[in-house]
TrEMBL record:
Keywords: Coiled coil, DNA-binding. It comes from Thermoanaerobacter siderophilus SR4. It comes from the Bacteria. The keyword Coiled coil applies. This is Transposase, IS605 OrfB family, central region. GO terms for molecular function: DNA binding. Residues 380-424 form a coiled coil.
Length: 478
């Protein structure tokens, strides 16, 4: 998606006031629709009722409902309470509640909050209507204008000021969009008393040519140290090459600087995939855990904040890859690091990050991971006393894994199940009957059993110690 920002210059103050009133009604309509969606109302009922209540046409109301639904779904994805969403911004709202802010500072904050809460308008593009029916770009001899529908056959025109001199080509792009009849969405926002328009155009991507037919490149993004690890496979999932890319710029600096470097790193990854003729496999990143306080604070906040940044980076990789006709597959990232560190890091003498990228690539090819035979044999040698010690180690990791104590019973069953595996056909892991225990949780049991004994304090970065156990089946004192 391409987004172009522009400032709107109105011919008269009266025209501006009419548009401000429209934005206020639309914002109220969207908030009202959000409350009704929480109560279980359907789109058709809302669309019929809201037109008369807020004096908006059918398209404006439909767009308000769509935005409300989008906000509701986003809230659920982040794991927050949809009933506690604050339109206008929670951060600004909390600042307004502080008693030590008063006078001009308080007034300024209140204006900003009201602008964010009431100064919005969104209009979707429509291909059948040659662009956008409610907010249409019109090219005239004296400039480029935005025609805004403010009522039945009533329009207000505002001149589009598309940026400073260095961005003078923005207006030319908008003119080309208007002439091509491409569908484009327009969002109006009120900031510091001025109205800004954001034009969004959905990109039409060319047909995919580079697929997973010849293999894939798996991408693993790590918060600390900040780096991208990649691993190339052939069509059978065998490791061919790998690499690592440091990203120190994403750890600090202003927003624009980080955004610039995210694009640069995305270009580098896509360049590698294009040169090697391989598809790209990336992680699906979902940020749900907000911590105990619900504000992303505490021990996990660092990782979560990085996930926001890396989700943006992965989105850019997808966009650039599709422009270059490269297939992009998203996979579940669960336990890719654990599988990589236990199975492939010792085998190929690579870092656990590159090993995780390799697992991601294989998962993108639809390959399943089996527990190595020698790990099974190792678990079978554990005595009752050693199994009890293993369970104690698992209990200590339960808090870190966000598991409830009831899952310990399922972990016990998992250990039993692992010890009973004998034939190779059973090595493809399956869920335990009658439990909610995930297949990937077996790898967590292995991690505690194999890694913890030689590195109890923290997970090491060098897994060469496991090579003898993994390949030759040799181990010392359990």
């Amino acid at each position: 998606m391409i987004v172009i920002q522009a400032k709107l210059i109105f011919l008269t103050q009266q025209d501006k006031q009419i548009v401000l009133d429209l934005m206020k009604r639309w914002s109220s309509c969207m908030r009202f629709a959000y409350k009704r969606l929480l109560e279980g109302y359907d789109r058709k009922t809302l669309k019929r009722d809201l037109q008369g209540t807020f004096d908006l046409n059918s398209r404006y109301v439909d767009d308000a409902i769509m935005k409300a639904r989008s906000t509701l779904e986003s809230s659920k994805e982040l794991g927050s309470n949809p009933k506690k969403v604050i339109f206008g911004g929670r951060k600004l709202f909390k600042k307004l509640q502080k008693r030590h802010i008063n006078g001009k500072a308080y007034k300024k904050l209140k204006i900003r909050w009201h602008e964010k809460r009431k100064g919005n308008l969104y209009s979707r593009g429509d291909k059948s209507k040659k662009g956008n029916l409610n907010t249409r770009i019109e090219v005239r001899k004296n400039g480029t204008f935005l025609r805004i529908n403010v009522g039945e056959r009533k329009y207000v025109y505002a001149k589009i000021q598309a940026g400073w001199k260095k961005n003078k080509n923005r207006e030319e792009i908008l003119q080309e969009i208007a002439k091509s009849n491409m569908p484009y969405s327009v969002e109006l926002k009120l900031k510091n008393g001025n109205i800004y328009a954001y034009f969004a155009i959905e990109e039409e991507y060319p047909e995919i040519k580079i697929t997973k037919e010849k293999g894939a490149i798996g991408i693993d993004i790590n918060a600390y140290p900040d780096n991208i690890s990649w691993a190339e496979t052939n069509e059978k999932g065998n490791l061919i090459s790998y690499g690592n890319m440091s990203m120190p710029e994403l750890a600090s600096g202003d927003k624009d600087k980080r955004e610039y470097f995210r694009w640069q790193y995305a270009h580098e990854i896509v360049k590698i995939a294009k040169e090697k003729g391989k598809a790209i496999v990336i992680e699906e990143l979902e940020i749900k855990d907000k911590g105990k306080r619900g504000d992303f604070s505490g021990r996990k906040s660092r990782r979560i904040r990085h996930n926001f940044s890396y989700k943006s980076l992965l989105s850019k990789i997808k966009t650039l890859a599709r422009r270059e006709r490269i297939e992009v597959t998203e996979v579940n990232p669960s336990y890719t690091s654990i599988i990589g560190m236990l199975k492939y890091a010792p085998q190929y003498m690579i870092t656990k990050d590159i090993a995780a990228a390799y697992v991601i690539a294989r998962r993108g090819l639809g390959l399943q991971e089996k527990i190595p035979d020698n790990y099974i044999k190792f678990l079978n040698t554990l005595t009752e006393k050693e199994l009890e010690e293993l369970k104690e180690h698992i209990k200590n990791t339960v808090k870190n894994r966000h598991l409830k104590k009831k899952h310990l019973r399922e972990i016990d069953k998992a250990i039993e199940f692992l010890q009973s595996l004998e034939s190779e056909s059973e090595r493809v892991l399956k869920p335990l009957d009658g439990t909610s225990f995930s297949t990937y949780d077996f790898w967590q049991v292995l991690k505690v059993a194999v890694v913890t004994p030689f590195s109890p304090e923290k997970v090491p970065r060098d897994f060469s110690t496991l090579k003898g156990l993994l390949i030759q089946g040799k181990w010392g004192d359990p």
